[in-house]
Specification:
Length: about 250
């Protein structure tokens, strides 16, 4: 099986549970799977993107508080819909915007790129190590029994989501809690990552065109990360009108 066929199959088996879509039928996601990345530290390209993102965040926050930015506010409402308190567990976009005021972390070029694009396009983006997945991703409402691997004071530990919490999971357990709040240790991106999965999350009022623009810019950045990079993409929709070529669940 070719690399592209393997990535397409992985994405084709991704599912979103109807119980999640009943909370937010306007939910859409773009999943981008990539192989053949040449690992590398933060570089000039990722630094330029991060500086652009920091400037963009500062400009946005001059206009209004972070919680009033429309897509941040939509995600705060989504968190409340399953019982999470957004002032305590912030969606990933809000968390990055708040950090940008004093400077974003420099991790490695892969992480730096998707963090920067998340801010520049005001879209929550999650990045995972594809080789660590056991089966394809599933967006579900947790039973509370699914394991989630973390580090506590530098020591590996396991915690469990709240019943009804929206989580991304694979056959082994939870990969990201509270939709896009906290990623797990097992599938986190590493300095050695050569295959990755990116999830771009959208709610109204973010448009399909804006989501597509974010996905396209991320893909353009990814294909520059090695001579043998292979990228596959899948759009997933709830009950709203799908973008041409997207798939309604």
């Amino acid at each position: 099986m070719s690399e592209l066929s393997s990535l397409d199959q992985f994405l084709a088996e991704t599912t979103i549970d109807s119980a999640v879509l009943s909370l937010r039928p306007d939910y859409r996601a773009v999943l981008i799977a990539v192989e053949g990345i040449t690992p590398g530290p933060s570089d000039e390209v990722s630094e330029t993107l991060l500086k652009r993102a920091e400037e963009s965040a500062r400009a946005a926050l001059v206009q209004q508080p972070v919680e009033e930015i429309s897509h941040v506010a939509a995600w705060r409402d989504a968190f409340r819909s399953f019982g999470a308190k957004p002032q305590r567990t912030r969606n990933s976009l809000e968390a990055l915007l708040r950090r940008a005021a004093t400077g974003l972390p420099r991790v490695n070029r892969l992480t730096d790129i998707y963090n920067a694009l998340s801010i520049l396009h005001l879209v929550p983006i999650g990045g995972e190590d594809l080789s660590s997945y056991i089966g394809s991703p599933r967006l579900i409402r947790a039973t509370g029994s699914e394991p989630f691997e973390i580090l506590t004071n530098g020591v590996p530990a396991t915690e469990f989501p709240d019943p009804g919490e929206v989580v991304w999971a694979d056959a082994e357990g939870v990969t990201c809690r509270r939709w896009n709040w906290r990623q797990g240790r097992r599938t986190q991106l590493r300095d050695s990552t050569t295959a990755a999965l990116f999830i771009l999350d959208a709610l109204e009022p973010l448009s399909d065109a804006a989501l597509m623009h974010a996905a396209e810019e991320l893909t353009r950045a990814l294909v520059l990360l090695g001579p043998d990079v292979c990228v596959a993409e899948r759009w997933l929709y709830g009950t709203t009108q799908p973008h041409s070529g997207a798939e309604t669940l």
